[in-house]
UniProtKB/TrEMBL annotation:
Coiled coil: none
Signal peptide (UniProt feature, chain positions): none
Family as reported in the entry's similarity comment: Belongs to the short-chain dehydrogenases/reductases (SDR) family.
InterPro entries: NAD(P)-bd_dom_sf, SDR_fam
Stored Pfam families: adh_short
PANTHER family: 3-OXOACYL-(ACYL-CARRIER-PROTEIN) REDUCTASE (AFU_ORTHOLOGUE AFUA_6G11210) (PTHR43180), SHORT-CHAIN DEHYDROGENASE_REDUCTASE FAMILY PROTEIN (PTHR43180:SF66)
Keywords: Oxidoreductase
Family annotation (Gene3D superfamilies): NAD(P)-binding Rossmann-like Domain
Protein name: SDR family oxidoreductase
GO molecular function term, any single one: oxidoreductase activity
């Protein structure tokens, strides 16, 4: 088995995935990035300067593609898969009562089942290297976010999956972690939130909440992989929500009843 460590990242064509790919590559890891966006993948590879990096056009809903690309990547990596970063996801918002059913199905299929696919299929590869499964959850997994109900539900699921597998896979030496970022400056913020026509980004800014850079999340991903905590909170918003959920649940409930989209 090669001595160079290897990470496979979904959603590597932009945002958190791109920033994490660059960081791990800079620190000497072999990096595989997957995304449905071929152009985004090419941009990430160019920013990384090539090197020990491979890209794979893949939809996380496609189980056959998972197997094919993990086989391909571990062949190149000398059999190693030290980290599988389940990061791909989409951002959706707006009133649930008005949501399109196809969009609801797509959100659950990508944000939750896509992560479950990665975990189920990736386990065999991670067990060989006694590696780490890292999942991207969200501050919306701390307390359900008004105007982001389906997105929150999927991220709660990701958080629950992380906790369950941390116990289930302990005996095999496979660590399971997640990062729980607040609002990150990525294209996901272009979606519509709450009861207004504003984007999530506009609503976040109007509510006086801060945006965290993708580079900051990448550093948190590095720390999560190398640390002992199951959950790693990223950014002031995530830490504040975690504090409020524990110590001020009534206040947080009233805030959600007002709705993120109505603030500002």
């Amino acid at each position: 088995m090669s001595e160079v460590k290897a990470i496979f990242i979904t959603g590597g064509g932009s945002g958190i995935g791109r920033a994490t790919a660059r960081l791990f590559a800079q620190r000497g890891w072999r990096v595989g990035i997957a995304d449905v966006n071929a152009a985004g993948l090419a941009e990430t590879i160019a920013l990384m300067g090539g090197g020990m990096a491979q890209s794979y056009v893949m939809d996380v809903r496609d189980r056959e593609a998972w197997v094919a690309h993990l086989d391909s990547f571990t062949t190149v990596s000398g059999g190693r898969l030290d980290v599988l970063f389940n990061n791909a996801g989409i951002g959706t918002g707006g009133p649930l009562a008005e949501a399109d059913f196809d969009e609801l199905d797509r959100t659950v299929a990508i944000n939750l089942m896509g992560v479950i696919n990665g975990a189920r299929i990736g386990y065999a590869y991670l067990a060989k290297s006694r590696g780490c499964l890292l999942n991207t959850a969200s501050a919306s997994a701390i307390y359900g976010s008004s105007g982001l109900a389906t997105y929150s539900a999927t991220k709660f699921g990701v958080r629950a999956l992380t906790e369950a597998l941390d116990g289930e896979w302990h005996g095999a030496g496979v660590r399971v972690r997640d990062i729980i970022p607040g609002f990150i400056e990525t294209p996901l913020l272009d979606g519509i939130a709450g009861r207004t026509n504003r984007s999530i980004r506009e609503s976040v800014i109007a509510a006086g909440l801060e945006l965290t850079s993708a580079d900051t999340v990448a550093e948190a991903a590095w720390d999560a992989v190398h640390g002992t905590k199951v959950h790693t909170y990223v950014g002031k918003t995530a830490h504040r929500l975690a504090f409020a959920a524990r110590w001020m649940p009534g206040s947080l409930r009233k805030r959600m009843q007002r709705g993120l989209g109505s603030e500002g």
